[in-house]
Amino acid sequence: MGARYRYASLTKMLTAQAVLDAMEQASLPLETPLSHFITAVNGAKDRRWSQVTVERLLTHSAGFDRLHSPDPMTLHAVTPWCPGNLDRLKAVMLDFDPGSGYGYSNLTYCLLGVVLESLSGKSYRAVMQDHFDLAAYGIQFVDGPYLHDEVQYDFRHAGFYTDDYYRYLDFSALSSSAGLSGSALGLARLLADLSSKKRLALAREFPSGSCDPAAKMSCYGNAMFFYQKPDSALSVWVQQGYVFGTSALALLDDRGGLLIWLGNGAPARGSGADIMLDDIYARLAELYEQ
Known about the structure:
Layout: E1 5-6, H1 11-25, H2 54-58, H3 106-120, H4 124-132, E2 140-141, H5 175-178, E3 180-182, H6 184-196, E4 219-220, E5 225-227, E6 236-243, E7 246-253, E8 258-263, H7 272-289
Antiparallel strand pairs: 1-3, 2-3, 4-5, 5-6, 6-7, 7-8
Helix pairs in contact: 1-3
Keywords: Hydrolase
InterPro entries: Beta-lactam-related, Beta-lactam/transpept-like, Diverse_Enzym_Activities
GO molecular function: hydrolase activity
């Protein structure tokens, strides 16, 4: 199916879809509070935790923002408290009021992994394999060291980290936010199959004026953010990914298009996924205008 790359945060798309499906099967509304699944929420010092719902976790509007507080999932050589020590949640302060804005967070998707385990009665990795038949698409989880069929990564612009970076991250804890790997074709086929069966529910519209669609990562739906340049008729939903040595991008457009791009490096400055989004958007807009 092609070369294997680490999907990084493209993993979040599949976590989101699995949670949406499990909530529907359990006949639970997305407004169900997190406390329904994690009782530690009831003892949280920050009372705003009671306002965190499954929907707000899905849409990065639960109150966490890694630009304001350190990301507990990617601290150097530190075991994250999620998912293994959820009592630590009681002391965590949110960065903003739930539902009042958007803040990208790996922690939200770790918590969604816990929600999925509660709904399914299985481990996160087991339920994902069963739900999506990941092996049929050549998709598998990473435990740290490189798999035999992975590409070689370019770490020239990865800052402090080099090819042994995985020694300082907990890939088990990162399973639901950045744990999957595979080829671009494998992920594209999986998403296309879900779409053809009307089982892909990541794209969602936003009321006019509720956020700025021309600003990247401003309008979050289920995992993916909505993006539309001014004076353009093209709307897209985007998930970007980055882990040291890897850049990734998934894009759905309002004409039914689907694109997966995986790279084995990053530019010296800025985001490789941002650069690719700008280029792909321009090419798609031109294509659809023909």
